[in-house]
Amino acid sequence: MAGAPRAEAAPAKAGRPDGATATGGGLIRIAASRLDEMMDRVGELIIAEARLAEIAAGSGLPALVSVTEDIQRLATGMRDAAMSIRMTPLSSITGRFRRLVHDLAAQIGKPIDLVILGEETELDKTVVEQLAEPLMHLIRNAADHGLEEPATRLAHGKPAAGRLTLAARHSGTEVVIELSDDGRGLDAARIRAKAIEVGLLSRHAEIEQADLFRLILAPGFSTAERLTELSGRGVGMDVVRRTVTDLRGRLDLSSEPGQGTRVTLRLPLTLAIIDGLLVEVGGERFIIPLGAVEEIVELPDKAGEDRTSRLIDIRGRLVPYLFLREILATQGEPGPYQKVVVVTAGDSRLGLVVDRIIGSNQTVIKQLSALHSGLGALSGATILGDGSVALILDVTGLASPEWHPTLSEDHPKEVFA
Predict the structure, then answer these.
(1) Which of 16, 51, 127, 334 is the most exposed place for a label (fewest CB within 10 A)?
(2) Which residues are in the Histidine kinase domain (predicted)?
């Protein structure tokens, strides 16, 4: 109707107690606490809907089953809408990185080019907010420690201006954020000497280069020769690692002498609700994030007897696999037809052997207690429709050779690449 008022564009009253203000153009600003409360309520709705589905399946009443299916559809739509509201593009925080690099270049006398790729990549707002400070520290670290002076770069055939690249992309159920530089790279000898000096490493210890580089994540570890406004204060990388861990993410380091350093952050898309694959292992039920599941195949008959070769041929490609009953120390007997759930974690593929596939499940993630938060195989828990608790498996942790040493002994690390 012509001239009808538009509710969404109505001006807001100043000082509204609910924290919401209309900004015009069909947009409305809502307090973050209200979004968090809505997400909590949606999570409880999903759990209640799962309970109703269990009751309906056991009742045999067609009318109840039909209503339950309608409620499931509506709850799924509510979940997707609530999650989309919470998603925020990385571009919401990248502006401050450009200002930071501009100021750093003037402060330390090094010309720096910052390239940002994938700014449109969306993450949960909580993840984006908590990532700002760690990423700013990584940029400061790369500018101060990683990039050489212009004269040194020219002498080595590099452009005078150092290059920092911040790239973000989706990878399954994760968001991968990489910060790389084209500087001098990490000095393995210097890191080793500092680790010996502070007691993190014995003088004659043998250590892989990747593990040596990870020592810079230890609390208070710093190779800076002098204290400046940017470095040498004994804090920083350990705070970055702790923040990423608290977000159920993972931090990886790689470096080549003279070529630069790459820091990779792998983070979950959301911290609230995911689609999960419900499986049974040793009579107990577990959740595998469905977004990480690539395919499900039968475990070959002889595979369970061979404890030395843990590789399965899937269409001409060898995929390493793990028996979850061994890792999780379950007590029940294995089923007669075990399945291999092939999952992806970053650029790796891994098979997880389970006894039975139960089906898909909307999973409301509940955080583990502080006592269990350090378990590399688990990322949380959820409440099933019958009221029981199922643990959520951490696919990234299970794919890590460092977490499961027998896997790295049985197979070369190239298998995971």
Answers:
(1) 16
(2) 61-271
